[in-house]
Structures are given as structure tokens and as C-alpha cells.
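In response to reviewer comment 3 from the previous cycle, which asked for concrete evidence that the modeling workflow produces usable outputs, we include below a single protein chain processed end to end. The sequence was submitted unchanged, and the resulting C-alpha cells are shown without manual editing.
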Amino acid sequence: LARAMDTLSLPIDGNPVATGMGNPHCTFFVEDVAAIPLDTFGPAHEHHPLFPQRTNVQVAQVTGPDRIRMRVWERGTGITLASGSSSCATAVAAARRGLTGRRVTIDLDGGTIAVDWRDDGVWMTGPTAHVFTATLTPAFLAAL
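The workflow returned the following C-alpha cells.
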């Protein structure tokens, strides 16, 4: 954040929660995640002046005492089907707000993840899937 402030209630329209998971997150709790135009909402908040290094943006809808529907705008990437750090950030934000308990299921466009905020950290579990195979040339690697 650009300055010290209450991370549970940021001074931004929509009253989001800021959470750090090794990277910055800004979670907005909304009535209907499908109604949010994430392609414009995401970048507008990713580049908000409160986040000088930009932020990931989540819109989340609490659908039950232990369930959240979430969509993700990842900084520098755009809309993504799923994000582990965003899921963890949203689970912690919801529990801090008293909207859920510390153990929740997160439903994302790309699947479902379970998050458990324990005394020793935030634990995430979910399925894995092979997405693609690639071969990187030495020239490509040298350019990194």
C-alpha cells in the first residue's frame, strides 16, 4: 500500500479488503460476481494509486457460511480462471470481515479450491491438471 491504513476497509469505492499473500491482493465482496465487468473493473483497481506496485483484484460473492464464488483479475495478466494466492487472500479477507469461518470452499471459473486459515498459516488444496507442454530454446532462455 502507498501508506499505512486499515486493511480491512480500504478507502476505495466498494470498501475492499487488502491482503498480502507474498503479493498484494484487493478483494471486493459483491452481491453477484457475474454482474461485475471484470475486464474494466480489474485494471481500474489494479492501477489504483493506493497500490504503487499494482495489485491482484478479486470480486467475491459469499454463497454460504463456508462457500465463496470468486473471479480474479491478476496484475499484469488479466482475467484468469483460477488463482491460489487470490483464493487464499479472499478466504482470509472473508474470515476477517466475519462473513465466513476460517475454512471455506472457493468456486472459481476454473474449478474449486479448499482454503483453511490455520494458526500456522493458510493452507490451500485442490485438483491439479496438465495444461500444456512446451519446449524452450536456449535463445529464449538466454533472453530472460
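The two ends are 29 Å apart (CA to CA). We consider this sufficient to address the reviewer's concern, and the full set will be provided in the supplementary archive.
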